[in-house]
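Fig. S4 source data, part A: sequence.
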Amino acid sequence: MSISIALTSTEEDTPPPNQFEYVYDGNDDDDDDDGKYDNNDDNDQDYDNAEHEIQDRTHKINFQLAKLADSSSFRNRTASRMAYDLFRSQDHPDTVSYNTVLKALARTSSLQNKQAAGLAQDLLEEMEDIHYQQTFQNQQWYQAMDSQQLTEEELSRGPPRIRVKPNARSYSTVMDVWAKQSNPSAARRAELLLDRLIDKYEETGDVAMQPNVVSYNTVINAWAKAGANVEGAERAQALLEEMEAPDVISYNGVLHAWARSGAPNAGAIAEGILRRMMDEKEASPSVRPNSRSFSTAMDAWSRSHKGRQDSAERAHALLTELEELAEWEPAMKPSYVTYSTVINAYAYSKSEPLKAHKAFSILKKMNQLFKETGDTSVRPNRVTYNIVLNACATSCPVAVRDHLEEQDLDTKLPSLPDMVRTIYQQITEENSPIQADHFTFGTVLKAVANLFWGEPDQVEFGKDVFQEACARGQVSFGVLVHLRQAIPVDTFRELLPDAAVSQKRAEPLMRHIPSEWTRNVREDGRGRRAPNNRSNSGSRGGGSPKER
């Protein structure tokens, strides 16, 4: 859950009047008539004009900063750097200036950009220091005025301005920068900032420093992103309990933290939180669960397979409940993410003998819904197909047979190999919207190795899958590992270049695989190329195996 904090020049960024601020009302009746506090209209006008010029320049730069901040992103750090450089060129930055450059840093913060967090923290501390200095100078001016120690020029110039004052938005934005670092240490830094904000509000009663739901949600999000640990989930839930008026984002953040916690009872805890949301939705509409709430609770169940044997069934039950709710509330309609989450629960299940059949049934339902409605939000994608293939590849044919016999169930269910063939055909057929990747081919070969023993087409099917992977440039080390397990060793040796056959480790082996076979491999699914896959120009089989 990513918290987006929009920063604009609004009244929120304008600090309330300083408690020592004195406003001259033009009435000199109470002043000593010694001429010390007589105003010089010309000087007043000059100072007013100078102040207006400062404010005008600051406003213009802030407008440019806002445009750069809006353009900043993980992929466009240049805009963030330009915003920071422009900010530093200001002679009189104000609260809006600081908050806007903090927004730019928040939009570029990530695991790959660790400097943003430190820089944002420094800017916040700089705001605190400048506010202290400006407040001190402002107070000194009024004390000097009260003791009649100001010159006519100092009086005409007026009190020093308090231009910079950190507010709840400033702190929340820096919390967001830390949250995007996605580690426990960063989450602790974010929570320390929340604690500091709470302390400042309790000390001063200043409404501009009052933590709001965004402040809490940002730290909950930080703990949810902190990685697979129970501490993060417990801290997120503790923050939820502290909030006076949490919203659905607050609850979803805690659900996400439990889903990622790795706790064996995460599914049960997450479903308990979901039930609490359902119970409180009438009294507090802002906590009404949405489809993401259900999907995240399902995800928690899918990751609880080590703690509960019925985790996949519990996730499926939530999907059924969500489908029933969607009949009355269209906004609750499950998406391909929701369906894929339940399929994933079955794929990881160690105790459900018919997990492949149930996953395949959900896949068919998704395709049928898309065919009937044209709704692309339920259309399965490559990840969905890969998960179903994995559910098949990790199934036990003997367990399926025994379960059917014990339960006296209909044995006309499709066989595991038949399901793999059907799914593979849907993915690779002409005009298929699914673009198979190396995970697809590797999982199909894994299924061949585990399920196809005794099947008449085991070797030929395995070879066909590998040849298709070569033709599509999707041969990774994982594909080769599963190929070696799926077909006889002699056939395996025939398919690979001579220099590659003798290699056992990944890097040396891949150096002898033709680059045409690996050209489209993306190891992390985010466009990053696989390790060096240089081909040996002298190796046998420089093209697709089909060409040999």
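Fig. S4 source data, part B ends here. The two ends are 50 Å apart (CA to CA).
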